[in-house]
Amino acid sequence: NCCSLTEIQAQLEEETSIIQYFLGDQKVFAFHLRKTAMEVKEIQIEDSLIQKFLGMIRSEKSGTLKAYLDTYEPLALDIYKDILGSFSLPLGHELKIIPDGKLSYVPFEALISHTRLTEQDQVSYLLSDHIISYGHSACELLRKKSQPKSKNKNFLLGFAPIFDTIPAQSLSPVDTPFLHNSLFFPLNGPDRLSWSSLQLPNEEEIFSIRELFPNGDVYVGEQALLGRMIEEAPSYNLLHLATHGSYSDLNPSQNFIQFTYIQENHPIANERLFAKIVYGLSLNADLVVLSACQT
Length: 295
Known about the structure:
Layout: H1 5-11, E1 16-23, E2 28-33, E3 38-43, H2 47-58, H3 65-83, E4 94-98, H4 126-129, E5 131-134, H5 138-146, E6 154-160, H6 177-180, H7 202-212, E7 217-220, H8 226-232, E8 236-242, E9 245-246, E10 256-258, E11 272-274, H9 275-278, E12 287-291
Parallel strand pairs: 1-4, 4-5, 6-7, 6-8, 8-12
Antiparallel strand pairs: 1-2, 2-3, 9-10, 10-11
Helix pairs in contact: 2-3
């Protein structure tokens, strides 16, 4: 459901800002919404800076910390100035970020708001200045805010699927081209994707988490089915999914989290939690952990 600007502002706290981005074909706009004001600004984003920044975060660190920060700090500061620097953001205010396009990949909390005066000073990560959260729309953020805290008696529900039961022919780059270019889905032959090499140490992960919550319920291997998750998840406070995921901003309706596939002649799509299905789930959890690639 849509909501009006007035409705959104009425529910905003005085010390909360919503910052929403819109990436058009030619221009990029940022909307800064507070309880009593709104401003819109056209901003410039350099793709090369974003790619370099994400590359530094994802790559294995080498060399000294000083050498790393000498490159990282000015890069993170430049991106901050590009996408947030034009707004007045009082220290300590909560920022609710609604990204768009390439900005969906940027961890805003890792940006740097100003340079250090000396090497002994702490790095001024945005996370140190603000409470940061993310959402897909302002209305969604407010809906979450109005949801009551979970009163479920059951605490942990965990899933650790297996993947070697998935037939190779069930994934074709012709049908899902965005997977063909993914580092997480190696090719098996010229035109097929292999799942047999994708088994994770997720069973060990899920059992180690249950040691922290002895009364939790976990399903591994052939028991880790999507139908079971949909049926039981509304009764738990904490959901932990240790599995594979696939994400594409070019084809968002096909984004999914994989569960165990065990039935022959059964569409593999029936064991995938697609993004569109999530919107229809009646979840009452306080926390959902997606321990999966591309999530």
